[in-house]
Amino acid sequence: MGVSLYRTVKMGDMQALYFLEETERHMSLTLLPEGMEPVPWENKKQAADSLVQAYVRGDDLPGAYSGGKTMRSGGTVWGMRFCQQKCETDAAGNIVVETMLQSPHGHFCHYLKYLAHTGAAESWTEFFNTGKKAVTLEMLSSFSISGITPLAAGAAPGQLRIHRLRSDWSMEGRLVTERLERLNLEPSWAGHGVRSERFGQVGSMPVNKWFPWLLVEDVKNHLFWGAQLGHNASWQMEVYREDDGAAISGGLADYEFGHWAKTVRPDESFRTPAATLTVCKCDTIDEASDRLVSAMRVPDIASEQELPILFNEYCTTWGCPSHENIANILSAIQDKGISYFVIDAGWYKPEGIPWENALGDWRVSKELFPEGLEKTVAAIKEAGMTPGIWFEPETAGKASEAYRQEEHMLTRNGAVITTAGRRFWDLRDPWVRDYLRERVIEFLKSCGFGYVKIDYNDTVGIGCDKAESLGEGLRQNMEASFEFFQEMQRCIPGLVIENCSSGGHRLEPKMLSATAMSSFSDAHECTAIPIIAANLHRVMQPRQSQIWAVIQQKDSLTRIAYSMSATLLGRCCLSGHVTELTAEQWKTIEDGIAFYKAAAPVIKAGRSYRFGPEIFSYNEPEGWQGMLRVGNQGESLLVIHMFGGELPEYVSLRLPKNTRTEVQSVYDACHSKYQISDGVFQWRPKETFSSIALLLA
């Protein structure tokens, strides 16, 4: 069974290598940095692992103890035969490689699109049913890269490790690093038996356990392979191994993992969500992940260009906003450099009903706003701010009339899906779409809101009825959800949309592409805020990461600066006891706002580097963290947070080569000592839970 290099396609500083097994005509894909050559194929015991992984119902299932572990490399894959390949470059410089595989069921077409002037490419697969019978897919990958690591003969023991990002409520983005051997991802002594680490998330919160993000590192050769999937429902990724060459793949959660099956009728097709891929030679996770993040699409909203600061009243009124308390807040924050004012949850709730139980009807509370919201909107505009408002349009609370519209709700096995007092609209239903247009879009237009925060506070789970499978029902419903976001933007040009899902449960590329900003977390008042905010630099652009700075009356000046400095890691969202603060407290906030505005160009466009020890406890963090953001024009923002534990004599970090070191501005409530000498920054913190921020040029 001979395997030869069929084609090499240069993609910026990367190269895509297509290997063809000549007898069965199986095609595999390997990525390498430009200029690097793989070891000869015969130097590794490896099969040509297909660049498309799929399973069609009724075909032979994979063997070698795969059942329940993986659906890769079964009868459908081994029935594929390479047919043809096209490589074209468009006017923008994007290179698209289309690889067609013929099978008894139809054509599987894999697409790899280099995104010009970036360090990344997009990958997706489309199945075309060219036969005369319906075909039911139970798995179809968006990407599959094999032959890892192509620079080492044999299995490269101890040389490969994977990096993933865990996520739970208020603990988004914790880095987990494991060697392949610790996951049993080592070929057996006899070369028999499949090894697979399949992970992902099931439900309508795509970042409820893991981020759809993966890096594989060759520690000997300083190589990273990266993948990030854009999908707002159930998804999976796999690290797979049966021989010397490891493979990574991902896409929709398959039938075993997410109960997904899709029937494609004759002359129809089905396309997977896209994944972003990269490969690079570098020294750090931050450099590798920056290639994925830099390729992400961000909406171009005119009002967002200078990263304006916002105020959200949730941590001031705690779900009970009114015209009266908003007027008091406006008097305290007017002329403080704040551009958006967001009315959060509760503006619609009847008297005596908690805000979370009143979702769905979306009628303005007469008790809280006796003259309607128009008067409050006018007051916000008079204070020089863009008015914003909160919705959770995809659900209904148990005290609402909407909750009883069971014929329009999602069901599973015939029963309405209900979670702790919430139900979920079936967004595929035309009646529901019309209802939401009236209650949300027309409401925003008629009241004159320029900003909307869209929240989503529970998950449907494995899926819903009215499709070929529960997983496909979920995919269709969440596609309709995404389309509603797009419809809001079309109907109200310039509308600033904030993506929130109990904080960061929807921080994936697809939703980020449709929204100007996203809530980074529901971490409102805790000391872990800068830790979480720093984590997210690996999966999203800081200009989209909205970070809470909740200021309380009891806060010391050091604590206020700690909170304000955390927002330098993304977007600044103020809240808290702003009507009860002293002039001295306000001075520290105002200094933070002025520093933020000076730093905004670096936050908007640059590259991020994290320094410091691993932080184990988020509730009682110890140690320190440094974040350096190097702007595209050479200027830099350095933000360091001191946590609990023993206070060190000094914190020291070596700045990346060629980092400018002239200090332009400092934000430090403690007036502590620091120095920069020979590219090394040293800071002598005075207190635990303190911070310092510097602009360098």
TrEMBL record:
<dbReference type="InterPro" id="IPR050985">
    <property type="entry name" value="Alpha-glycosidase_related"/>
</dbReference>
<dbReference type="GO" id="GO:0004557">
    <property type="term" value="F:alpha-galactosidase activity"/>
</dbReference>
<dbReference type="InterPro" id="IPR013785">
    <property type="entry name" value="Aldolase_TIM"/>
</dbReference>
<dbReference type="InterPro" id="IPR038417">
    <property type="entry name" value="Alpga-gal_N_sf"/>
</dbReference>
<dbReference type="InterPro" id="IPR017853">
    <property type="entry name" value="GH"/>
</dbReference>
<dbReference type="GO" id="GO:0016052">
    <property type="term" value="P:carbohydrate catabolic process"/>
</dbReference>
<dbReference type="InterPro" id="IPR002252">
    <property type="entry name" value="Glyco_hydro_36"/>
</dbReference>
<keyword id="KW-0378">Hydrolase</keyword>
<protein>
    <submittedName>
        <fullName>Alpha-galactosidase</fullName>
    </submittedName>
</protein>
<dbReference type="Pfam" id="PF02065">
    <property type="entry name" value="Melibiase"/>
</dbReference>
<keyword id="KW-0326">Glycosidase</keyword>
